[in-house]
Amino acid sequence: MAKDALMDFDKALELFEPVLGFEVHVELNTATKMFSAAPNPAHPDNHDAAPNTLIAPVDLGLPGSLPVVNAQAVRSSIRLGLALGCSIAPSSRFARKNYFYPDLGKNYQISQYDEPIAFEGSVEVELADGTLVTVPIERAHMEEDAGKLTHVGGATGRIQGADYSLVDYNRAGVPLVEIVTKPIFGAEHRAPEIAKAYVQAIRDIVVALGVSEGRMERGNLRCDANVSLRPRGQEKLGTRTETKNVNSTRSVERAVRYEIQRQAAILAGGGTIVQETRHWHEDTGTTSAGRPKSDADDYRYFPEPDLLPVAPPIELIDELRADLPEPPIARRRRLRSDWGFTELEFQDVRNSGLLEQVELTVAAGTTPAAAKKWWTGEIARIANAGEREASELVTPADVAALQALVDAGTLTDKLARQVLEGVIAGEGTPQQVVDARGLAVVSDDGALIAAIDEALVAQPDVLEKIRDGKVQAAGAVIGAVMKAMKGQADAARVRELILERAGAL
């Protein structure tokens, strides 16, 4: 594959104005699929299902099978539309979007076209420096997902170079909400950053609502990023490309930056942009051509004849509106204020993806600083080393119990790290690990004095140095006592006892 020519990013922004647009697909975590009673693989209970085991005749498009709308998926879609500031349509209908692909058993996708369930909204996006950007939402519509192809052979797992492909229809029929923005103007040099922040904002919203796990690495949330450039001073929009199914916020940021640089180089050289889908390559940080981008007419949309319009009662909409959680931006600002964190300290927590765990640990009685220290420090380190999720290693309740033992003087920080390892290894609660391993701090003066006397035998000049005003000499004895007692001595009390011996207290 030939390497694309790229223009310097700053130079590209001198010559062209970027216009962005995003289509974010959110998999809803309902128990069953959008139009069948088959278990939903996007539900937490079904993540590890074997291929082609979560299917029903409707998902495969078998003759005579008829779709039935999932009422919970409709409720979740309305809640999401409301959280996006959208109006909810008094009546919306499904349509057939016709196209052929091997993982689409019916050869059409049930979606919504000209009558979506939610329309005309906006999302407030917060950038890293606290700047707020309003992203206009055109629509949020319900649809079903297609199946999934697994490409076997080759080095990349993609269709290029594969020996053959297998079809898994488990994902066929998973309830989706597709959120489509209006064109986003004025992004300028911050276009990549806005792209990342927007997708993160959508993820925060769906997780706060509880309608989706929002795990991009699992495909619960996927982003198609549209980018076009127009020469400075030109009103007419440029030709856009659509980079498909980008699976992390960082990759969305990189893909937008890359497309700006690639398109600018083509336009500056007198070339034209092809309206097409493009694939994002995480390993190389590049995009490559997919297929020519179809327009709506190419899909031959027509109303779904087997489904009635969706007409939610106004009472239901009001009920769902009243039950919306605190908006993520408002929640973050409240937490930062309540915790007394600086912007940088709070960003550390947010960027770790462990905000909820820290919040729950604080609610269990731990100070915000201690909760942050454990989750973004030792727990995150262990998780990264084992390539695991920090939130799956230990509960906020256990972290709070661990810190309570430290606060009570039962554990030092060093001993607490050993206890944490025991909890993660499944040895029980922090207190149970302390009892089983015998890790509690020794605070009995008799035991400490015995250890101090033994250390002083090896360093007889320490007491004299302390009496001469060299109090720091006590450190050598403290270290020897801590080593002898395997770190379980109360270092502060050991120091007091040494100074008492030297008559320095």
UniProtKB/TrEMBL annotation:
It catalyses: L-aspartyl-tRNA(Asn) + L-glutamine + ATP + H2O = L-asparaginyl-tRNA(Asn) + L-glutamate + ADP + phosphate + 2 H(+); L-glutamyl-tRNA(Gln) + L-glutamine + ATP + H2O = L-glutaminyl-tRNA(Gln) + L-glutamate + ADP + phosphate + H(+). InterPro entries: Asn/Gln-tRNA_amidoTrfase_suB/E, Asn/Gln-tRNA_Trfase_suB/E_cat, Asn/Gln_amidotransferase, Asn/Gln_tRNA_amidoTrase-B-like, GatB, GatB_Yqey_C_2, Gln-tRNA_amidoTrfase_suB_CS, Gln_synth/guanido_kin_cat_dom. Residues 356-502 form the Asn/Gln amidotransferase domain. It is an enzyme of class 6 (ligase). One of its GO terms (molecular function) is transferase activity. Keywords: ATP-binding, Ligase, Nucleotide-binding, Protein biosynthesis, Transferase. The keyword Protein biosynthesis applies. It holds the Pfam family GatB_Yqey. Gene3D superfamilies: 1.10.10.410. GO terms for biological process: glutaminyl-tRNAGln biosynthesis via transamidation; translation. PANTHER family: GLUTAMYL-TRNA GLN AMIDOTRANSFERASE SUBUNIT B MITOCHONDRIAL AND PROKARYOTIC PET112-RELATED, GLUTAMYL-TRNA(GLN) AMIDOTRANSFERASE SUBUNIT B, MITOCHONDRIAL. Belongs to the GatB/GatE family. GatB subfamily. This is Aspartyl/glutamyl-tRNA(Asn/Gln) amidotransferase subunit B. It comes from Microbacterium ginsengisoli.
